Structures are given as C-alpha cells and as structure tokens.
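Q: How do we represent a protein-ligand complex in a form that can be generated token by token?
A: Start from the inputs.
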Amino acid sequence: RPRVLSGIQPTADSFHLGNYLGAIRQWVPFQDSHDAFYMVVDLHAITVPQDPKQLRERTRISAAELLAAGLDADRCTLFVQSHVPEHAQLAWVMNCMTGFGEAARMTQFKDKSAKQGTDRTTVGLFTYPVLQVADILLYQADAVPVGEDQRQHVELTRDIAQRFNATFGDTFTVPKPFIVKETAKIVDLQDPTIKMSKSASTPKGIVNLLDDPKASAKKIRSAVTDTGTEVRFDETEKPGVSNLLTIHSALSGTSIAALEERFAGRGYGDLKKEVAEVLVEFVTPFQERVRGYLDDPAELDAVLARGADKARAVASRTLAETYDRVGFLPPV
Ligand code: AQP
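Then emit the structure tokens for the protein with adenosine-5'-tetraphosphate bound:
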C-alpha cells in the first residue's frame, strides 16, 4: 500500500479549527487506503520558547484529540516524534544536504523570525523545515496531507530527496503534498486576511476545539464579515463570509452551492447563527471523546508506545540505508 505521513505540533492547549479542517480531518480516510503514519511533533515544538510540564501535557492532549478526531491506532501508526530517535539522526544528514540560502527562503521561518527578532530566533527554528524533510523521508511517504502553509516545506522535501537520490543512488521516495483546496486555509475570524493560527491569531479570531462550545459559538456570531448583505462564496470580495461557508460546509457535509441557495435572501446573522450551531454539534461529542482518552493516561501512553515501536521498525531501516549510502562505517 502507498504510504502517507503527517504531523502536528503540541504547541497549544488544543488544536484549532484550521488544524482540524485543513489537516487532521484529511488524515482519517487515508487509514483505509494507505499505510498511514501520524505523529505529534514534539521536537518541532521546542524550536520556540516552551514550558516542559506544559509540553508533556500538551503532547498527551494532542494524541487524545487525534484519536477523538477519528484516528484509530489499529489502522494507523500514531506516535510521538521524540520516541523515535531516527528523526533527529536523519535530520543531521538532511541538514548536510540543504543549502543555507535554500533554508533561508522558507517563508514560515521568515515570518516567525521577523516577529521574534534574530537574537531570540533559534537555530532550531531555522532548521525546522529540514527536520520535517527527515520526518517525511524516514517513512518513504508517497503523500503528505497538510494545509496550504506547509506546501513550501513539502516542496523542499521533494528537492532534497531528489538531490540525495541523484548524489548517492535511489534511496528515498519523492513525496507529493496532499492539499484539499476547499479547507487548505481557514482564516482568522477577526482578520480574514491571515490564516487562523496558534501563534498569530487573537483569542477572538481562533476557535480551539477544546474551548467552551458556548464561547466558540459566540466567536462565530461575532466574526468579521464584509460589507454587503448577500451570502455568497467569494474569497476576494467576501473572505469572512466565504470562511464561514467553508466551515459550515466542511462540518455539516452540505455543499457550498446548497448553502448559498439556503441562505438566499437571508442575512449574515442567519448564516453565523447556523455555523455556530453546526460547530457546537461537532465539538460537544468531540470533547467528550477527548476527555475519555485523557481519563486513562496509562492506556494513552501504551497506545503511543506501540505506535513508536511500529514507527521505529520502518525508520531504523531507512536510517541504516542512508548511513550506508553516505559512507559511514557500520559498527560491528
Ligand atoms: N488556518 C489553517 N487552515 C488550514 N490548515 C491549517 N494548518 C494550520 N493552520 C491552518 C495545518 O495544520 C497542520 C498542523 O500544523 P502545525 O502544528 O505544524 O502548525 P502550523 O502549520 O505552524 O500552524 P498553526 O497550528 O496555526 O501554528 P502557528 O501559529 O505556529 O503557525 C498543518 O498541516 C498545517 O498546514
């Protein structure tokens, strides 16, 4: 079966609606068609200042959210990145395959480092995309389901895989990004010109899946819309309304066209009210499932340990082959 790999950072107390609709939700069906590897990328999470106790808690919460979103540890390999040391090991080799200028062109790095200033920006943040290259190549992934903001990092992965293969002989599968256009960029509720983001959104602009559903409903009802009155999907003229239509459609399974028809002649207020309802219907049982997993941390840790064993079986083979290709003398 073809392979798929993706990861998500445990950098907040909950995933947000953008993470869910842009990425996690796309991961679920791959469990039936692909050999699927999904991980909580805690190595990536320490590229910015963080609190150790919080990171440990957030790693468990993240795993619980992934299971509650429909991942099934019997049908995919779900694990924590730091449990598989091969990620950091392969990342070193990939660092040595990546040009400094090439890494410096990554827009996510440019945005984040500009905000933090050069003295506070870590070298880890700079090489974050290269660690991601290693994450993907270790599993010989064919496809990488992500949101639009990650496209450039998957392109970098393709370039480096091709470079390595051309230099040392065919070693890595060259992966393709898998991006679902409709939900690839869920925007901030208060500023539809930016993506909904853990680090850049204000509390009113972001919907976290584990927030109080009533508070989330209120955020939807006070989302910034646009001048005009017509409920119509138009990302240029009506980015706020289009975002609400996208969220409704993704959560309710109703097509955008059907929603436009349903709201014809009605105002933005009606749309917001209904999106809020659809959201509450989704997050309420989701939160119950998350609590269920968190109530039994020993079982959750055991699930992650089994996932790490399965992941290492694949990762160690790729690392050994890579070490051999670059000319490291094998230990006897
Ligand atoms: N607004 C979004 N719309 C669609 N997809 C999104 N993703 C993130 N934001 C949106 C996708 O979620 C996955 C997990 O990404 P991550 O944990 O690496 O976080 P990120 O991409 O850095 O985005 P965040 O969560 O908002 O964090 P910050 O604020 O740090 O940038 C990825 O597949 C991503 O594309």
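Residues 8-9, 11, 18-19, 22-23, 146-147, 149-150, 184-186, 195-200 surround adenosine-5'-tetraphosphate (CB under 6 Å). Residues 59 and 247 are 26 Å apart (CA to CA).
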